[in-house]
Amino acid sequence: VKSVIVPVHNSESWLDECLKSVWEQDFKETMELSVFNDASKDSSAEIIEKWKTKLEDAGVPVIIGSNESSQPRGVGFAKNQAVIQSSGTYLCFLDSDDVMMPQRVRLQHEAAIQRPNSIIGCQVRREPLESTERYTRWINNLTEEQLLTQVFTSHGPTVIMPTWFCSREWFFHVGKFDEGGKGVPEDLLFFYKHIQKGGEVFRVNHCLLLYRYHPQAATHSILEGTIWNHRVRFLEDRVLSSWTSFTIWNAGKQGKKLYRSLTPANRKKVTAFCDVDEKKITRGFYTYEESEVRPKPKIPICHFREATAPFIICVKLVSTTFSLSCMCKISICSI
């Protein structure tokens, strides 16, 4: 059995189209739909019941769970509950405001069979088309290598959560979604745990999802600062823990922000900032004014030609997105 996992909260505007796309799958093996309704106050429950009849008539069992309290428990909780109540050996995650193409379950299942410890993603079409153009281009065009080397960028997971497909066994090996509720980037935290446990990332190079952008999306409730802190901790764990010293490439605002965000132990490993901007270089050093250490740490600023590898490159990936990158003498990986 393959389980389509749909968390729902006040989704009446999109739910019909979303559940219709489950009904239209061309997958010939056994499939079930597991929906968890997280305290919706609109007509979501009625729409789910209507599609339960249609889907079960078509041979697709539907499992419905719900949080009947007045307050939603959040996306992480709703996804976990939908997984727990399901029985599939593979899980196909679908957000209630998105629409699957008919071949999605079939093509991602074919890929997942070959890759038991992978999160399988796919390419997407954004709706409306002109929203987040750069981000959509990034999602769709990362190379196989970049799916692993760009895990540190501010874009988050290199295969986006609404496209995830993985085995049930691997999902529970990683350990479920964080249930902290509103403001918690549960997909990013799960993705980081997945990488830390040796998980792989693969994308089916077909557009298999209509990915909606709208003001009510849960993504908008997550603060940039929260994501930044999780990214820095992940960088420290994955990269800096094995480095004894490094240079931060960027003596400007972002480079200094990164320095200040590091743990005291990792700040001590920063041998210099490097840059190409003469103004910054002529200052000679950066004083960490907020430090409680006396004398306050002074970090040299030099031209990149004089700098020593390895580097953390902290620059814009494109004009609207900051990226952290780590560069060793022989390889560059975008972070």
UniProtKB/TrEMBL annotation:
GO terms for molecular function: hexosyltransferase activity. It comes from the Eukaryota. SUPFAM superfamilies: Nucleotide-diphospho-sugar transferases (SSF53448). CDD domains: beta3GnTL1_like. Residues 3-171 form the Glycosyltransferase 2-like domain. InterPro entries: Glyco_trans_2-like, Nucleotide-diphossugar_trans. Pfam families: Glycos_transf_2 (PF00535). This is Glycosyltransferase 2-like domain-containing protein. It comes from Otus sunia.
